């Protein structure tokens, strides 16, 4: 079960986030969503400030008790900048980044690299590493960046890399993958709270 983080200033401004924490509205939204969080056997969170803060406001275990989930997409020198600013300054680089899964014109990670990294975690992390899915299935809930959710869906459904750009992941939504490595089923975009509750929190 993958939960995307609450809104913060970077998400609202379409920035390549350089690790911006939640703002007050994001904190309120996460607290409103907390009663709707499904139960799990294990919990994890990505390393960004907004993932960790969202996990905390959702009532997940203290950071020391959380497992490690994949970090967001490493976008090098674009981190912290708005997409429209980068597109105006480096149109050819943005076109290459969006069109070629192997490209990393920002000096960070390519889309192919992100997909591989998240795929490796999905294949192993949900089962505790040494355990096998058949012997010991678990329910893992992880708060991860939207790009990680999208990459997990691509890997789980064996979609072409270009499909990444056709997927949207809203804040505080639940994406559920059930099954086992090599045979996943998908339920995506489930809100963690009634729509009115989340909008009202902002």
UniProtKB/TrEMBL annotation:
**InterPro entries in UniProt:** His_Pase_superF_clade-1, His_PPase_superfam
Q: Which organism is it from?
A: Streptomyces rutgersensis
Full protein name: Histidine phosphatase family protein
Task: Give one Pfam family.
Answer: His_Phos_1
Looking at the record's lineage, which domain of life comes first? Bacteria
Lineage runs: Bacteria, Bacillati, Actinomycetota, Actinomycetes, Kitasatosporales
């Amino acid at each position: 079960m993958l939960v995307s983080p609450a809104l913060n200033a970077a998400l609202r401004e379409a920035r390549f986030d350089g690790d911006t924490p939640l703002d007050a509205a994001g904190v309120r939204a996460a607290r409103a969503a907390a009663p709707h969080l499904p139960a799990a056997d294990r919990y994890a969170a990505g390393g960004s400030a907004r993932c960790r803060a969202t996990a905390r406001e959702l009532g997940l275990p203290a950071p020391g008790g959380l497992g490690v989930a994949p970090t967001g997409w490493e976008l090098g020198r674009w981190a912290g900048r708005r997409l429209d600013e980068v597109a105006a300054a480096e149109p050819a680089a943005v076109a290459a980044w969006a069109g070629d899964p192997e490209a990393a014109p920002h000096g960070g990670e390519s889309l192919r690299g992100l997909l591989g990294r998240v795929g490796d975690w999905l294949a192993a992390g949900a089962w505790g590493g040494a355990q096998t899915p058949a012997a010991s299935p678990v329910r893992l809930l992880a708060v991860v960046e939207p790009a990680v959710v999208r990459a997990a869906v691509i890997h789980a459904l064996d979609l072409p890399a270009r499909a990444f750009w056709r997927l949207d992941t809203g804040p505080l939504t639940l994406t559920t993958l059930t099954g086992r490595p090599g045979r996943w089923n998908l339920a995506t975009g489930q809100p963690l709270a009634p729509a009115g509750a989340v909008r009202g929190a902002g």
